[in-house]
């Protein structure tokens, strides 16, 4: 059974994009709350956290497949070099 795949793109410490191979709702929780205004903190699983938002992912099956393939090729190459 193939699991659904999602990729979260982060730049400058902030989530820029969420992409998946199937539509899904994503909740992004950041437990690094230093400097966050107290009014923006929420309790998630008992801890203070900043919740970016609940957002839907953009669906792009081909791009997800391409990125995972690229990563797998790099991982395989690194393993071969380390043997």
Would you summarize the structure shown here?
This protein is an alpha+beta fold and 83 residues long. It contains 1 helix and 6 strands; from the N terminus they run E-E-E-E-E-E-H. A 3-stranded mixed β-sheet has the order 1-2-6, with no helix packed on it. The protein has a 3-stranded antiparallel β-sheet with strand order 3-5-4, with no helix packed on it.
Task: Describe it.
The chain is of the alpha+beta class and 83 residues long. It has one domain (6-82). 27% of the residues lie in helices and 42% in strands. It has one helix at residues 61-82, and strands at residues 6-11, 14-20, 25-30, 41-44, 47-56, 58-59. The strands form two sheets. The protein has a three-stranded mixed beta sheet, with no helix packed on it. A three-stranded antiparallel beta sheet has the order 3-5-4, with no helix packed on it. Strand 1 and strand 2 (14-20) form a beta hairpin. The longest helix has 22 residues, at 61-82. It is extended.
Task: Report the count of strand segments.
Answer: 6
The residue-averaged pLDDT reads 88
User: Unreliable stretches, pLDDT < 50, 5 or more residues?
Assistant: none
Helix content: 25-40%
- Cα(first) to Cα(last) distance is 30 Å
How many separate domains make up the residues? 1
Task: Sum up the overall morphology in one term.
Answer: extended
Main sheet properties: 3 strands, mixed
What is the structural class?
alpha+beta
Instruction: Give the amount of beta strand, in percent.
Output: 35-45%
- Cα radius of gyration in angstroms: 17 Å
Strand order of the largest sheet: 1-2-6
Count, helices: 1
Return the string of H and E elements.
Answer: EEEEEEH
């Amino acid at each position: 059974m193939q699991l659904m795949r999602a990729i979260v793109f982060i730049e400058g410490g902030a989530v820029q994009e969420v992409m998946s191979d199937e539509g899904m709702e994503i909740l992004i929780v950041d437990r690094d709350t230093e400097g966050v205004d107290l009014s923006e903190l929420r309790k998630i699983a008992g801890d203070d956290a900043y919740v970016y938002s609940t957002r839907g992912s953009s669906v792009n099956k081909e791009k997800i497949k391409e990125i995972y393939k690229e990563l797998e090729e790099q991982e395989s190459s690194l393993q071969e070099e380390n043997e």
